[in-house]
Amino acid sequence: MKNLLKISLFSLLFLSFACSEDNDTLTGNGTEGGLVDKATAAVTYPQGQAPTELLSSTFSIFQGNEKVEMVEVYKQFFGKVDVGTPNETIMSSNKALLTTVMMPLESQYETATIEYSYNDLISGLTFNGAPLSSSDLDLNIGDYWVLTFVSHLTNGDVHANVKPTTTVTMACGSYLEGMYNLEVTITAGSGAGTVYNLPGEELTKLGGTRYKGTSIGPYNERGLISAGAQIAGVGLVFDDICGQIVLWQDPSWNYSAQTGVPDYTAQFLGPYYNAVYQDPSQVTSSSVDALTGVITVDYNIWFSSGTRSYRAVYTPAP
Predict the structure, then answer these.
(1) Helix (H, G, I), strand (E, B), or coil: what is residue 26?
(2) Secondary structure (3-state) at 220
(3) Cα 299 to Cα 245: distance, rounded to the nearest angstrom
(4) SS3 sequence of 131-180
(5) Contact indicator for 201, 179 with CB cutoff of 8 Å
(6) Which of 81, 108, 233, 316 has the fewest CB atoms below 10 angstroms from its CB?
């Protein structure tokens, strides 16, 4: 595993503050040194990422009269068992060494950056009677690891720091960006049953869990369906929230007087104010199949002649 070390030197004013004892947050003697002063409090692990992809966090050491020559970083897993039953509870694994960082003994206040992958986090841990799964999909959203720090000083003393700690929490990951074959069906309203095929649909990640496509209903800008279906800049915008697809609600859309759709609950149809929106039942039925990667999105488009409902099915392109 790769450990990166970054050293920073603070002003004498800061150092005079750091040299004072603070037994509420540190263990050991502040004048002796050996204290982990600060650490990254929280790190998010996106479920579904490659098991070798690296996360990172930092910790800082106060060097006193005695110097820290090495810091051991330990890991412990906490996870839910019997999920969804009356017996649901949180259990912990054993504690195991994650990595060892050698300190350079150059500055009174030193900061180190460590990097680690899912494979690193699970190695050597036993949970509920078995090794942690090699697939993060077997863990639950909200499960977490706690990283703790043990300082080894040049005089042979060892400080097991109670605080601070770093918590690495399992969260929903979203990886939908790419090319799809899109099939759109009118499910209600004028033209119900009509099916449109729109190959070459691209989903672009806008950040976090949000994506933008290149079509809404049959409307696109790549020459498909008909000349009347061409709208520059059109594209459905939605969030993938733990596998549920929720349409973005544009805060600038305020055409309730024209459409009857409440302000700020819809997005535009390209440059037009036609409301593109979901009702609660459509949110419930819109999802991502975790095994096949197929995305299903149900939504409505308001037209002056009457609202139409659509089902869009995105199948990953080969």
Answers:
(1) coil
(2) strand
(3) 10
(4) ECCCCHHHCCCCCEEEEEEEEEECCCCEEEEEEEEEEEEEECCCCCCEEE
(5) yes
(6) 233
pLDDT 10s digit of each residue in the chain, 318 long?
A: 444 443 333 333 333 333 333 333 333 333 344 589 899 999 989 888 889 999 999 999 988 788 899 999 999 999 999 998 999 999 999 999 999 999 988 878 899 999 999 999 999 999 999 999 999 989 999 999 999 999 999 999 999 988 899 999 999 888 999 999 999 999 999 999 999 999 999 999 998 789 999 999 999 999 999 999 999 999 999 999 889 999 999 999 999 999 999 999 999 999 999 999 999 999 999 999 989 999 999 999 999 999 999 999 999 999
Coil, helix or strand at residue 282: helix
In angstroms, the CA 174 to CA 164 distance is 30
pTM here is 0.61
Q: Quickly tell me which residue has 């869009």 as its tokens.
A: 312
Tell me if 70 sits within 8 A of 102, measured CB to CB. yes
